[in-house]
Specification:
The complex is a heterodimer of chains A (about 170) and B (about 170). With about 170 residues, chain A is α+β, with helices and mostly antiparallel strands. Chain A is about 30% helix and about 45% strand. Chain A has a four-stranded antiparallel beta sheet with strand order 2-3-1-4, covered by helices on one side. In chain A, strands 6-7-5-8 form a four-stranded antiparallel beta sheet, with helices on one face. Chain A is globular, with a radius of gyration of 20 Å. Chain B is α+β, with helices and mostly antiparallel strands and about 170 residues long. Chain B contains two helices and six strands, in the order H-E-E-E-E-E-H-E. The chains are: A alpha+beta (about 170), B alpha+beta (about 170). The interface between A and B is medium-sized, with 13 and 28 residues. Strand 9 of chain A pairs parallel with strand 3 of chain B, so a sheet runs across the interface.
């Protein structure tokens, strides 16, 4: 029976990486599940759910040539994951502020204590070299209600961080 | 139990353009009762369009009244609806009975005016906004073979394509 693996690839970014990697996976009989590619800094990063009939070693051998040709490091983990296991976030939180150490830790710890289960998070640094701005977007499930999260954010924002919470009300039609 | 089943993508009927209703008869009114039952039995369902059960006619039901703290007009049966005015843009999360296990962000007009007939062929005009306006736009899209998948914006960014909603 085919098993799911989490494939992580990292390396210097250049055009064509996704096309070459996915072609190699397709040629090797793999199926793709959910994937997430991000360009972080100057680096290419991707995580992919890959369904494969053979073991991790066979998948490793199959990927090695394409990874080497593209200058990518990769890592394979067998996972207990499956498709169709989405968690539906019910709150979105946008955060920004002058970049300084500890923003992510401060905000996410406050939200964790207030019952937030993070489903998606991405953060970025904008602004200029001398005046960097940290920007973060979080989707999550408010396990203890939205009021608890608002209280937690009210404390964080006293320290010069801007945070805006928006409930996500899904319209099913 | 309803005689109808919700079609799910990639059923090609969901990508067809529906035709206007001409006959406002008992058969039409019974059909509306039947699909309303499906809408209400679907978890979270606040709207349904006739093509979602394979009837390619311009019939929509929307009822967002079970949501608290929002502007709404109760149970709406919109036959041959036309959106005559759009104002503003807003991003919101949508799902669809015809696209299970996926939700995504979609830009919609914040406020709309709609002209439509009810099931007794009486003409109405409605102005609405927010969640109800979103539901109406989502359902009317079904009449033109459009799913919310056709209007997705990035999960990661607030950027959206400038788009003419007509």
């Amino acid at each position: 029976m085919a098993k799911w693996y989490m494939l992580t690839l990292v390396g210097k970014d250049r055009p064509g990486i996704v096309a070459h990697v996915t072609a190699a996976l397709f040629d090797g009989g793999c199926d793709l599940g959910e994937t997430s590619m991000l360009r972080l800094g100057d680096c290419f990063t991707i995580m992919m759910m890959v369904k494969h009939n053979g073991g991790a070693k066979a998948l490793q051998q199959q990927l090695a040539p394409v990874a080497e040709s593209l200058g990518l490091h990769f890592h394979i983990d067998k996972i207990d994951g499956h498709l169709h296991r989405h968690l539906q976030p019910d709150v979105h939180i946008a955060v920004y502020g002058a970049d300084r150490p500890g923003i992510v830790a401060k905000v996410t710890n406050a939200l964790d204590e207030a019952g937030l289960n993070i489903v998606n998070l991405d953060s970025d640094v904008g602004g200029t070299e001398d005046k960097p701005i940290y920007i973060m977007h979080i989707d999550g499930v408010a396990c203890e209600g939205i009021a608890a999260l608002e209280s937690a954010l009210a404390i964080v924002t006293q320290e010069g961080i801007q945070a805006k919470l928006t409930p996500i009300d899904v319209m099913i039609g | 139990m309803s005689v109808f089943e919700i079609l799910t993508y990639p059923d090609p009927r969901l990508k067809q353009i529906s035709v206007p209703v001409v006959h406002f008869d008992d058969e039409l009114r019974q059909f509306i009762i039947d699909i309303e039952q499906i809408m209400r039995s679907s978890p979270g369902g606040v709207g349904i369009a006739a093509p979602q059960v394979g009837r390619l006619q311009r019939i929509v039901i929307v009822d967002v009244s079970r949501k608290s703290k929002i502007e709404h007009h109760g149970r709406l049966v919109l036959i041959n609806p036309e959106i005559t005015a759009y104002e503003g843009y807003t991003k919101g999360r949508e799902g669809c009975m015809s696209v299970p296990d996926y939700t995504g962000n979609v830009m919609r007009a914040e406020r709309i005016s709609v002209e439509y007939c009810d099931e007794h062929s009486t003409q109405h005009t409605l102005q609405t906004s927010g969640y109800e306006a979103r539901a109406i736009q989502h359902e009317i899209d079904h009449l033109d073979g459009l799913l919310f998948l056709d209007r997705l914006v990035s999960r990661r960014n607030d950027l959206f394509r400038r788009k003419n909603y007509h």
